[in-house]
Amino acid sequence: MQRPDVERLCRTIVPGVGSVQVQPLGEGLLSETYKITRDGAAYALKVAAEHRPELGLDRAWEVRLLERAGSAGLAPRLVHSDAGGTAVVARWVSGRPWISQESTLASNIRSIAALLRQVHALTVPAPPRVVSPLQWIEIYSTALSLRSAPPGNPALRTAAVNRAQQMAEPPLVAGVLCHSDLHAMNLIRGAESLILLDWEYAHVADPLWDLAGWSANNELEAGAQWSLLSEYLQTTPAQQDWRRLRQFLWLYDYVCLLWCQLYVSVLGAQGPGEEGAGKGIAERARLLDSRLHLPAHYAA
User: What is the Cα–Cα distance from 276 to 130, expressed in whole angstroms?
Assistant: First the structure.
């Protein structure tokens, strides 16, 4: 949106009567984000991007989720949302995001594990939005094809689809509410607790999908992954839990590659490129496959 349009919108939906100050914060695939100041109070405004791709997201469902997460102290508290959730205003959260190196500290691994247990315990708004890794692959692949974007490496796609199909076979783990966009910039250390931002991709899934996302986005080594899984489960992980986490990590990487390709095709930004990112995922896959079994020094 143009700044005058944002200012006009804010005069209507942001609490207060004074003038509004608008600070653009960024533009993503789905939303434009602004910091709004009015009458001495600060707010975050998210407006649906005009040319956003169709990813099957439900803005109204997201708003109901944000109300629950905000009430639980896990997300900024909402102060306004329109009927379709295309314009959302929340209280500004003062604090700072973690830097990537902080994610490996033992105390912070315990903190993020505890935070994820709280997120996963939230009551899911009905009807639930359930998305599997295989569905994410198809959602992004369809969005890329609609933009006539390059199809990508067919061998990598085949490997990803095969893995996702295997993960969808019984026995399945009961799904919980997953944030699904866990990285350092979406985690704010507030005055009293950790707060998660940007719940647009939230959905119901295997809880280890979130642990895989945090591990991938922070490039956690195997030891830190093991510690995160142990702290989350609050017990020594079983072999099948470790294997499931590592498989989800591979799939999360691949979904992120598709996201990057779509981001470049929509916004024209420079990304890592198919070749470089594909090689990185292939190397990670080889590493993960070689370590699906518990390393001896992690075993109980």
Answer: 31
Nearest to 226 by CA among 252, 245, 247: 245
Q: How many CB atoms lie within 10 A of CB 194?
A: 18
**What residue spans of 59-204 are helical by DSSP H?**
59-71, 106-120, 133-146, 154-167
Strands (DSSP E) contained in the chain are 20-27, 31-38, 41-48, 78-81, 87-91, 96-97, 176-178, 187-189, 194-196, 203-205
Pairing mode of beta strands 20-27, 31-38: antiparallel
Is the bond into 295 cis (omega within 30 degrees of 0)?
no
* Alpha carbon separation from 42 to 54, 70, 90, 186 (Å, rounded): 31, 16, 9, 18
Q: Write out pLDDT tens, residues 203-225.
A: 999 999 999 999 999 989 999 99
For tokens 């061998």, name the residue: 155
Phi-psi region of 2 (alpha: psi -120 to 50; beta: other; left: phi over 0): beta
Type of residue found at 175: G
pLDDT tens-digit readout, 79-114: 999 867 789 999 999 998 888 789 999 999 999 999
User: What is this structure's pTM?
Assistant: 0.88
Q: At what angle do helices 239-267 and 222-233 cross, to 10 degrees?
A: 110
pLDDT at 287: 56
Phi, then psi, of 170 in degrees rounded to 5: -60, 155
| Amino acid identity for residue 228 in this structure | L
Could you read off the pLDDT of 12-67 as tens digits, one per residue? 999 999 999 999 998 888 999 999 999 999 999 999 888 788 898 888 899 999 99
d(CA 229, CA 31): 32
Distances (CA, A) of 204 to 58, 65, 159, 225: 13, 11, 24, 22
Report the half-sphere exposure of 81 (CA within 13 A, side-chain side): 20
